[in-house]
Amino acid sequence: MPANTRRFDQQDKNVTATRHEDVIDKGMPRPWRISLWVVQKEQEVVFDLVGTMILGRIHRESDTFPDIDLGPYNAEELGVSRQHLMLKLDGGRIAIMDMDSANGTKLNGEWLKANQLYPLRHGDELVLGMMTLKVELLMDPFS
């Protein structure tokens, strides 16, 4: 059943377009849904990853605004850099990269080399500075 939607243009404000609600969009991939459990605060951060995202903390004076702000979880006190870690899609997997952070990143107890990609898996443990994050992959678009 078509529904009417208004079309806003400068020539005719009363023009309508039709939309078929029974059409299924098969072209949009589902995003990865990720949960990061902040161990020190016993709180969860859940987000959808569809491209590249930066984890860090906001610093207005330097105009730094990461995609995931860990500031509310005592990130500064725990040594998390303003732009600490990048998450990105790498084919059918998630990859992480330490962005040359001041205090480094550990993946399952191993130090990461800065600016090098590493695979991220369900159940991994990340340590950004001294902030511990447990990783849960809640939705895998490839499964």
- Report the order of strands and helices: EEEEEEEEEEEEE
Helical content class = under 10%
Give me the CATH architecture, please: Sandwich
Got a strand count? 13
Strand order of the largest sheet: 4-3-13-12-9-10
Oligomeric state of the chains present here: single chain
Ends apart, CA distance between termini: 33 Å
What is the global morphology?
A: globular
Computed Rg: 20 Å
How would a crystallographer describe the biggest sheet?
A: 6 strands, antiparallel
Mean residue pLDDT: 85
CATH topology, what is it called? Tumour Suppressor Smad4
User: What low-confidence regions span 5 or more consecutive residues with pLDDT below 50?
Assistant: 4-22
Helix count, DSSP H or I runs of 4 or more residues: 0
Count of folded domains = 1
Q: Given the helix and strand composition, which structural class is it? A: mainly beta
